[in-house]
Each structure stands twice: as structure tokens, then as C-alpha cells.
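#help-structures
NK: newbie question, is this the right format to request a structure? protein is Ferric uptake regulation protein
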Amino acid sequence: MDTKQKDLNIATIKDVLRQYLMDKGFRNTPERYTILEEIYNMEHHFNVDDLYLLMMQKKYHVSKATIYNTIEIFLDAGLIRKHQFGEKTLSTSSYEKSYFDKQHDHLVIYKENSDKEIEEIIEFCDPRIQGIKDSIEKAFGVSIDTHSLYFYGHKKSEN
């Protein structure tokens, strides 16, 4: 993505956040916008510890509590998406930006001899999944707003 488009995207998500904060009666703090911009400059999944370390490295003065609270706001505003890939503990959550991203699914590959330590996360989009979603909507008379699909496994050994 070119710099001009990235700047436009950042401006758009800041407007979405500004409107959300106003609608909910929340404070409009510069820290929230800084955290949001850092997230939207990332190209990968992250957890709160990753984000906190990044903010500290860049000399931003935000507490981990501020980041946790801000993450909850971003989730509710639809600016990020939460995942639990099963890494290390079941309570560990990963996040990714979501405002401009289309729905996609994940293949979680664990390191050899481990069921909790992740080697790689591959994002994919298979058009057949849209067909399944359409069938479910028709069969149950519902409208699906979002979904998440995870496959977990190990790389096959080359013997």
C-alpha cells in the first residue's frame, strides 16, 4: 500500500474512533489515537505485551492498563478483531486491525513437538467458505455478520 493510501486509511480510522468516542461519551485522548495508529502501522497479529513494548521503544508513555482499556474500546468500535490461537495459555489473546480488512480465516501451525508454541499463522480466504455461510443463512433464516474459522496443525515431516 502506498504512503498516500496509508495516510488516508489512518485519517479514516481516526474519524471512526472520534465518532465512536463522541457517541459513547468517552474521553477523546491523544493516547488512544497514538495506539490506534501504531496498530494500523503493523502488518501482523499482536498481543498487548507486543504493543506495550513497541510503545515503550518509541518512548510513548502509556501504561499497560491504558492499552488494555483502549483495546476494549477498539474491539467495540470494530477497529480491531480478537483471536485466541491457543498459544501458551488459553487466556492469551491476539489482535489484528480489521476496519479495512475483508473476512479471512487462519491456519495456525505449531512448532514441532508442541501444541501451544506457534511457528506460523497463515491467513487465507477460500470462496467455498462464503458458500457455506450463504447456506447456513438460508437454512436457519439468519444474517451472519462475521465469522471466524481456525485450523490448527503441524507441518508434515519430510521423510
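mod (FA): yep, format's fine, and the C-alpha cells are attached above. The mean pLDDT is 87.
NK: thank you!
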